[in-house]
Amino acid sequence: MQEAMNLKQQLADAILMMERAAIMDFNGHCSARRPGTPHILINSGRSVRSALTPEDIVAIDLDGNLVEGEAAPPMEFHIHASIYRARPDVNAVAHTHPKWSTLFSMVGEPLQPVIMQAAVLGEIRTFGKTASINTRTLGDELAATLGSGRVAMLKSHGAVVAGGSVTEAFVLACYLEETAERQYHARQIGRPAVLTAEEARTSAANLWKPQLLQKVWDYHHAKLRQERRR
Which of 21, 181, 214, 222 can pair with 100 through a Cys bridge, CB separation 3.0 to 4.6 Å? Predict the structure, then answer.
């Protein structure tokens, strides 16, 4: 019971931190597998992303049926369910509506590893349909686009990140948006240098470590705690 409550709090905090960082807006959702069950935890569709609490996190099965809580899940729960079906290694999924990286999917320009943190994103694939992922068919197509990767862009819509934990998914969402913002601004003054394949491999190996991912989480979480104390 306590483990589930802790996971709900972590999900709520992740969404609040992504909203504060302009990675998630009034829509968007984050989920996690519920340990020891075939269910997932996810914020409800009607939840206010800027004022989320653990009470806004509901439990559903992979068909979207509510198993705990009173509010319905987001219409796009299929994003999460399809990825979990296809990827046993994934334990957390975030669907975000980030400002900068969505610009790139709108014009069909690829994001590139222009900063070292971008190396951990791996290959960024693009789901070519501009649509709400509100059916299993679309969810399965998105999961196929993501494949074994960590990040997929949804054309003119947003992004999906998949991690082994809520912390991993949160950090991937942060790194994706940071990469896009810096690439965009660098393009205004010149052509940004792109990491070589060797530089990317070295950077990914150096940065994809639990303590460094936790450092990113702790940075944002400290700001959230300060806000709560005001």
Answer: 181
| Average pLDDT rounded to a whole number, residues 165-183 | 98
Average pLDDT over residues 78-106: 96
Which run of H or of E encompasses 8? helix 2-20
- Residue-number span of the structural domain to which 43 is assigned: 2-222
First-last CA distance in the chain: 30
Q: Which one, of 29, 37, 23, lies nearest residue 98 by Cα?
A: 23
Angle 166-189/99-107 helices, nearest 10 degrees?
Answer: 60
Predicted TM-score (pTM) of the model is 0.95
The pLDDT of 135-148, averaged and rounded, is 97
Q: What is the CATH number of the domain that holds 37?
A: 3.40.225.10
Alpha-carbon gap, residue 84 to 79, rounded angstroms: 9
Single-letter code of the amino acid located at 142: L
Q: Whole-angstrom Cα distance, residue 25 to residue 84?
A: 24
The number of distinct structural domains making up the chain is: 1
**Sheet strands (E) in 61-146:** 66-68, 92-96, 124-127
pLDDT level of residue 1 (50, 70, 90 thresholds):
low
Say how many C-beta atoms besides its own lie within 10 A of residue 177's C-beta.
21
228 within domain boundaries: no
